[in-house]
Every structure is written in structure tokens, then in C-alpha cells.
Amino acid sequence: MTLLKQTNGKDSEGVSANQVGSIVSCNVEKGKNLVSLIRFSSHNDWILDSGATDLICCSLSNLVSFYRISPINVNFPDGTKVQATHSGSAKIFGNLCIGNVLFVPSFSYNLVSISRLVSHSNCIVTFTTNECSIQDKKSTKRIGTTNIQSGLYVIKGEIHAREGPPAQACTSSINHDIWHMRLGHLSHKRIVVLNRKFPFISLPVNSDYDVCHLAKQQNLHFPNNTSYADSIFDLVHMDIWGPCAVNSMNGDKYFLTIVDDHSRFTWLYLMKSKAETHIHLINFVSMIKTQFQKTIKIIRTDNGLEFNMTNFFKTEGIIHQTRCIETPEQNGLVERKHQHIMNVTRALLFQSNLSQNFWNFAILYAVTLINCLPTPFLKDSTPFEILYGKAYDMKQLHVFGCLCYVSTISANRTKLDPRARIGIFLGFKPNVKGYVVYDLKSHSIHVSRNVIFYENKFPFKIISHENFVDKIVTPILDYDFDLTIPNCLSDKSVFENNELQDENTSDSTRLNNEPDIDSILEQNHPRRSTRHKTAHAYLQDFQTSFATKTGMKSRYPIEAQISLARLSPSFKQVICSIDSHAEP
Prior knowledge:
Helix content: 25-40%
Strand order of the largest sheet: 1-2-7-8-9-6
Number of domains: 5
Number of helices: 15
Structural class: alpha+beta
Mean pLDDT: 75
Number of strands: 24
Largest sheet: 6 strands, mixed
């Protein structure tokens, strides 16, 4: 018998299989075929076959090690099929060991594939009339020879000693699983690689190790989901964001995000607590029915108790889908929408330098921008276009947080009162054709359509200290600033020489005659007492030497870092004028 290569590579059932044919000695006579099957008395002998694709053995005693494998179909000449469920390593000559030998107990012979022998051991096989010699290809050293018997090249085999009885599956399983445990419960793929390099390392038989699951199990990967609902409101995603670390101007801490799966249009509801979710959800379902003549079919949320509205969903015929615990990927659309909304919100706040308690206005304006911007998922269409069937009017957009002037109303206004208030733009009010403006003087919110914008100016924009020192020599103010010299600098004795300077006086003379600001401050500094000061009795238990002992100098005086001497005269005047105004 021999293991023959298939011409098509697969059997009729589409499963990869190996074929076993008959090795025969044919003496053809007239009208008669004489076929004689070769039978060997020992199951330890190996037959060399140039037509075999794999090595096959009929007894586990011929294997040094073996392990269970996925069943492989083997076809016999009479058309029957058997399955090889074990594979192992066998020693053919002395130290020459070949792996991946198939064990077929119903087979009566051991076959050696010439192609596998040459490729695995990198050797040269030479056939002569009476024998076959096997040599190492690199060193040309002879590995072994075989004799010819009944026209076949046969290798005399030996029984290899192994731990425990080889025929018992339970013992063999334990032996092979030892390498799995020796290697720290290495994965099956890595052990297969090691088995190719070191055939004596066998593959594990048991694949249901508790240790592997307890030590290595990870979350399963999520497939890329490119499907979406066929029409609007067939599937709606909902989630709650919060609480925010800073309460909004209205006291909001949370917001409810609703995203339509088909159009990707987003609705956002600000909330002071999660208990408001029920009201917003009921109102949203009613709004969809009235405004779009549509019924929401599926609502997908997390397992929060605020979405536990079983009776309402049954009444409305809505399917409520929830995700598994700690599996936000199952509702990933609204989770990613939260990230997009917060990215735009932070950009608006940083751009305008507004306080964080303005986040409620910034987040509503961010949702407005997201809904009217094209997205590649919708083939560069906007969610607003998909939902309403028309483009959004982009002309009504303005820079968030910019300077604006709002016209005052005629009520309670006299003829001499200002006709506008200065403020900052905070967005739009729903269902009102007007702009939301924050009044900088009264610190109140107004809604008006009579607004003039200065989109390149931001009243709350403050230049950072680093940029101020590096790029600006004199202060730049966005509004008029009174540079009147304070009273401490307006003494006649100080400025009488400078006020009478002739117009033709050179610039150098003017610089030389400019007053010394430091000396002026010293002259006008209030007199301090020179009386010796002693510490109070109750301070004896405290370390107060740095503050009470006279003549004690600080190791790190503040004047070493901050001093008026480093400022230009004009800058000193500005600093002193700022200091002269009392804070409210």
C-alpha cells in the first residue's frame, strides 16, 4: 500500500484528503493478471515510496511522540475512507527524526514519503539495484541504507521507548500536555512553530485548559459595521453624557444625546439630573410623530435605569435594545458622537476664551455645526439635508464668542441713552429667529435679531503671559485705557523741567531729562518706623525668624525675580496707572 498524491487536491466532498493505493507486482499473462500483495511480519518496518505525499504508520509504537489533530480523510484503493486523528514524530534512521507522521490504525503498513524525507532532512536519496542509501546533502555523510525486498525498499524499524504505554490515549495526552505546561501555557500557534524546529516538542491534546482562559482570555474583537438603517427613525441611538465637573450657567450637569442611524442627525437635551430623561424621551417620540409623520421602530441605549420605560415602549410599539455590560462598542455610534461633540465644544471655548460655565451654549452650537456639515459616511451630504431634504442656510452662522452689539429696545430708553449694548455671541435659540447674546455690562442673556457682529474680536480673549513677554513690548488693549499719570507721579517739582521743554529740543536731551521712576517712588513712599520690633509671646512656639528679626535677609528675595527696574519708563507708567485704580 502507498500514499499517492491527488491530482485535484480535494475529494468529492470538498475536504482535503490523502489517497492510499496498492503496491503490486504484476505478472501479465495471456488473459490473466497475477497480483501478489506484499505482507510483512513486523509492523515496525518502513516502506520507501516516491509517490506518497505524507508519512503514515499503523502502530503508535513507531512514534517517538504523538498528539491529537483535526481529522484528515485517507482514501483506500477500494474507495473506502478512514480518518487519521493523531500525528507524531518517528525515527527512521538513528537520530533522523521526521515529524507530522499520520497514524492510521486500520492500515497494515508504514510508508515513508520520499519527497517529505528529502525536504525535511535535507538529504540525498540514491537508489541502486539492491539497496537505497540516504546521505546528508551538506556533508555527504551516509545516514543509512535500506535493502530491497520483493521489489520494495524497506527500512527495518525498531520500537522506541516512551513514557507509559503508548497505546493508551490518556497517557499520551498527559505526555503531550506537559510541553504546553512547561512553556507557560504557550498558544497553539507558537507550539506548532516550535514543533517544526524541534519535533520532540509535541502539540497539546487537551484544548480546554482552565488556566489558559483564566490567565489570557481577552474581549472578542468587534467587526467593522458598515450597515445602517434603511430610512429615518428606523433605529435611534441614545445615551447620557455627564456629570460635568463644572455646572453650566443654568445649572445643567448632563445632556441627552439622540442620533438617528440613517441621517446621523443629532438632537441634544440639557439636563440638571438624569431623572429628566423620561420627559425628554416621551416628548421626542411625540415630536417625531407630529413633525415627520414617522414612528420610531427601535431605540438602542445602555442599561441605565433612566431608560427603563418598558410600559411606554410597549404602548408605542418601540423595540428597546440594550447593550451588554461594559460593552460601549455595541452602541458605539452615539459614543463616537459624544467625542465629536466635545471636540468641537472645547475648540469653541478655547477660541473665545470663555469661562467653562458657558459650556451649555458652546455644546448646543457645536451640535448645530455638526448637523449642517458634510460627512463622508453620507457621501459628503449633511445630516440636515438627509433629514429635511434641503441644504442648511450657512449664512446665518457666526463665530462663537465673538464681539457683537445688540440694539436696545425703545421701552424705558431716553433720548440720551445708548442705542446698543456690547455683548458676545452665544448661538441660536430654538424655534426663534434671533441670536443669543450675553450682555457684558448687565451680565444677562438677551435674544435679538438686531445684532451687528465683529467676528475677529473676542472680548474675553486674553494674551497669555508667555506670548506677552516674547512678542509684545508694550501692552495692547482691546478697549480704550486711561494712561493718566497717577497722583503720586504728578508733583510739580518732578515735572516742571519736562513741561517747559522747548519743541526743538533733541530726542537725546529729552531722554536725559526724563524722571527716574524708581527715585520718584522712593520719595513718595510713606515713612516707616525704625523702632526695634520684638515678637509676641504667643509666637515663641513658631518659627518666625524670617519675619520678626530685624536685619534678617531672605535667601530668595522677590526683587531678584520681579523688579520695576527692568521695565522701560513708558511701561512703568502703565503699571503705576493700573495700580492707582482701586479694585471694586
